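Ticket #4471: structure output looks truncated?

Reporter: J.K.
Steps to reproduce: submitted the chain below (399 residues) through the standard prediction queue, then opened the result file.
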Amino acid sequence: MNTRVDQPFQQPESQSQSPSIADISDPPSCSQPPTGSVKFRKDAKIAWYRCAVDRQTMRQLTECSDFQGFRQVFLLLGSFLLTGTLAYLAYLHVDGANWYWSLPLLFVALFAHGTLGPFLGGVACHELSHRTPFRTKFWNDFFVKVFSFISWWDYVWFRPSHVRHHQVTVHHDYDGEVVLPQKFSFKDWQFCLNLLAWNPVGTWNLWKVWIQRALGRVEGDWYEFVLPETNANLRREHRNWARLLVFGHAALVVIFLVTGHWFLIVLFTIGTQYCGWLGFLCGSPQHFGLSPNVSDFRLCCRTYTCSWLPGFLYWNMQYHIEHHMFPAVPFYHLPKLREAIVSELPPAPVGLLATWKHILDIHRKQIADPGYCYIPALPNSASGRVATAGLEPEAPLSN
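Returned output as attached by the reporter:
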């Protein structure tokens, strides 16, 4: 089979470069999102631009596989178990006589273990929430709970939130899951601590939030929009999940302490809450620096390519334009989807290094000009706009 190699990625000279497509009726707007309390709206009717894919190809691309799902979750869970086991063995061998080599070995093992953490949390739960990794619905719902428990993830809230995100991607007043422009600062010591080590303040804040949720309280305008008080069943499900999470982890902490295996708290209880550098590098490019309030995923989502290991850990979400255009396509078919529509997509950065060179250039420009957003050059295309209905079903946002 012939494999297409993406054209070398080139940075446009300025923000003013426009897409080469005639039917974009809503030119990109880089205005700032509203500040303060936000009343999100439900009345958006967005006709998203989607590339043309013939019916037979799309039928093949949307075919789900239990084998592919099991392979992904068992390899990922097995990797987490392996790094955790290595870290625990390294911990057992630390003593005063060999600390000069055993302690660095322990830190390396913990760094590897923590690096896997983000990919067991939001990344895994994201794809499982789409219910596409497995052909059998039960396994999608089962494993989203497994990964959510390990990573302290709020899958009850995330499912309806993410459906809404796909329907109204980065539209102000409609999408509260991803709000552009996004910001980060390497001068923030807590941010850097989260990336390279462990920030106990972040863990403490996470636990406090989950205790509040276990008491039936939700925080923030977007949470209240996605989990409205009028939806008693969804609120109850959310509260029950929070209680299971809090009491379940508390029980495990007691067991770890009573049995003398306190180090398992480091490996399991907070095992997904440190060394998040690779998750940040993989996940941040999704929408960073792109245009809000447009109806073309090629202008508000970013695809990049990378080597097999980050692609595996990241569940192929580096193909983010493709994922947003056709969310019913399982992650393991996204490379084939890209091959089918690549002629209508902007060039993709090749590798995380090139991607982050691009991201940091945008970051510098947005610091200098907060209104700046990156607009990729688009090829001429003959596809059109398609209503969202049927591509991603409506989530239970109300009674």
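Triage note (M.O.): checked the attachment and the full token line is present. The chain has 17 helices and two strands.
Status: closed, working as intended.
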